[in-house]
Design a protein that fits this description.
6 strands
């Protein structure tokens, strides 16, 4: 059953904190899942959250740390001594512990590491801290089960029992040689159904998907998604097994990557914290840059309309359809950009596929533009014939101008939206960077030129 926080429940917690009734608080909260407790912490002030944190058992409170928003975690950690933080980290996997230590001030990092009780655990954490944040090395944990290719099944089982005590979840058993180089993986089924005297070399699977320590985390996520893996081994430049990455770590990477792409696609920098945790000043700063750039771009629309001022003065009716024309082009461009960017993110399209995309989008643009063009023509005709609005004696040619303009502008918007991500990727930028608003702005300006040029072609000698 899903846990929901009620005002009454929060009030009960706050009252027990005020009374300093630690025993009842522990009874009330210890049976809750750590993710639910993290939600409760977010509803309390820092002093109350820290108070509860200190009375919970260290295994529970350590798990809560990883669920908290970064700024609240930072505030709670400030209220703890180096020894208290170390006690929490002793309960965490090495990758999670390393992430928390990385957030601490440099002076406190050394203090906390020196307070860790498990020397091997401390060494593993220090080792992980040397890897870059957004790499496989920065993402991996040291906890894993490995066996030597020269052992037999019985020796492996004994060794696995010893190693598994320090591993929360055993996703895979990795096989290494005497130099700790990754050789393959071992199936639990084969291990349990094979004679205890059988050499491991006869039963392990030599083909195993792995990543290197310096591979980007998004590439690790792509590989694990592609091969439907719950865990993946990590090797160094010499092929030695140094860690493993589990699916829960990858889910965080996927969420962060998709969130950043959505922010960029909408024309804003990625938020470092959640929307609710981001300050007003930071929110404005993240959005202002692209908004100013796009505003300056839209000023060209006014310049384009000024250039066609004479045509507008002769045929004011053309101005009625400007919002219709430029919005259709911008919408078609944003659609195309969304499809291409997502296909690029999923590795469905490479730079070399640009011509394939162009051919496909030309046909799409023509068909979509024709659909809108026909609807536009019918709309003008119905309004004219029913008397809803009088477009004048040349209404037919106005309708033709609008229809052909819609075909041309939707085609142009579609081509622009599909081409801009390729251009951004070619020059080394993220294709998601403000693609939709940038495409819409570009099509707004050029769409007016297309519209008035086509109108001049059909209405010359009539209205113009």
């Amino acid at each position: 059953m899903q846990f929901n926080i009620s005002k009454e429940f929060l009030g009960q917690i706050e009252e027990l904190i005020h009374q300093k009734n630690d025993q009842e608080l522990a009874v009330l909260l210890n049976d809750l899942h750590h993710a639910d407790l993290a939600e409760i912490f977010e509803e309390l002030n820092t002093i109350e959250a820290t108070y509860i944190f200190k009375i919970l058992d260290s295994e529970k409170s350590a798990e809560i740390l990883m669920e908290l928003e970064e700024n609240l975690r930072e505030k709670i950690l400030k209220g703890l001594s180096a020894k208290e933080i170390a006690e929490e980290l002793d309960e965490l996997d090495t990758d999670d512990a390393a992430d928390i230590i990385a957030e601490l001030p440099q002076s406190k990092k050394e203090e906390v590491i020196s307070e860790l009780e498990d020397v091997e655990h401390a060494k593993d954490i220090v080792d992980l801290l040397r890897y870059q944040e957004h790499t496989a090395g920065g993402l991996m944990g040291k906890e894993l089960v490995k066996v030597n290719e020269n052992w037999n099944v019985l020796t492996c089982v004994k060794e696995m029992r010893s190693q598994a005590e320090h591993v929360t979840r055993v996703h895979s058993i990795y096989v290494v040689d005497d130099e700790n180089r990754l050789k393959g993986r071992l199936s639990l089924k084969d291990l349990l159904t094979t004679s205890t005297k059988t050499p491991i070399s006869e039963v392990y699977i030599p083909k195993v998907t792995f990543v290197k320590v310096d591979d980007e985390d998004v590439e690790v996520a792509r590989i694990m998604q592609k091969y439907d893996l719950e865990a993946i081994p990590v090797v160094d430049e010499l092929g030695r097994l140094v860690g493993r990455i589990t699916i829960d770590d990858i889910l965080d990477v996927i969420e962060q990557r998709d969130t950043e792409d959505i922010h960029k696609f909408g024309g804003t920098e990625g938020l470092d914290l959640s929307y609710t945790q981001t300050t007003l000043g930071e929110l404005v700063r993240k959005r202002a840059t692209w908004l100013i750039i796009l505003f300056l771009g839209e000023m060209l629309t006014a310049s384009a309309m000024g250039y066609y001022e004479l045509e507008l003065s002769k045929a004011l009716v053309l101005g009625l359809f400007i919002p219709l024309i430029i919005s259709s082009g911008g919408n078609s461009g944003s659609q195309a950009a969304s499809l291409i960017i997502r296909a690029m993110a999923l590795k469905e399209l490479q730079l070399s596929d640009w011509w394939y995309v162009m051919k496909k989008e030309i046909l799409s643009g023509l068909l979509l533009g024709s659909i809108l063009g026909i609807i536009g023509f019918i709309r003008i005709m119905v309004w004219q014939q029913s008397g809803i609005y009088n477009y004048g004696e040349h209404w037919f040619w106005i309708a033709i101008s609008v229809s052909f303009s819609l075909v041309a502008i939707v085609l142009w918007g579609t081509l622009t939206g599909s081409l801009v991500p390729f251009v951004l990727r070619k020059i080394g930028l993220d294709p998601a960077t403000a693609s939709a608003p940038f495409v819409a702005t570009l099509v707004d300006v050029t769409g007016l030129i297309i519209y008035f040029s086509i109108s001049a072609l059909f209405l010359s000698g009539k209205l113009l």
